[in-house]
Amino acid sequence: QVQLVESGGGLVQAGGSLRLSCAASGLHFIDAVHWYRQAPGKERELVAYIRDGGSTWYTDSVKGRFIISRDNAKNTLYLQMNSLKPEDTAMYYCTASGVWGQGTQVTVSS
Where would a tag sit more exposed on the chain, N or C end, judged by fewer CB atoms within 10 A? Predict the structure, then answer.
């Protein structure tokens, strides 16, 4: 079964950190893998992606705070989130090869 499973979300105070994981089964990461997020009442937003060669891209609002990484041997994608802000509150999703995970909720309290 092809699937992506996110984990690591939770409730954290502003300024805190969380590390999200996205484990793949039934597929291998090739080319870029992405993290998206969607806050209530808002459109889904691309947060970051990392290419197979290691190059990365971040949306402006998370630059300097979030770090995306991947472990191809483990078929796992990560998102280290530091200095979290209430506006980072959202459901976070990973996607690769057209497959989406079910999401993990991140809530940042002020």
Answer: N
Under 8 Å between Cβ of 56 and 47: no
Write down the residue that tokens 């984990």 correspond to: 7
Distance CA 110, CA 108 (A): 7
Cα–Cα distances (Å) from 101 to 5, 19, 96, in that order, read 5, 16, 9
Q: Is 13 within 8 Å of 28 (Cβ atoms)?
A: no
* pLDDT for residue 43: 97
Mapping DSSP to helix (H, G, I), strand (E, B) and coil, where does residue 88 land? helix
- Residue whose structure tokens are 């996607």: 95
CA distance 49 to 51: 7
Distance CA 46, CA 36 (A): 4
Cα distance between residue 3 and residue 59, in whole Å: 25
Q: Average pLDDT over the chain, rounded to whole?
A: 96
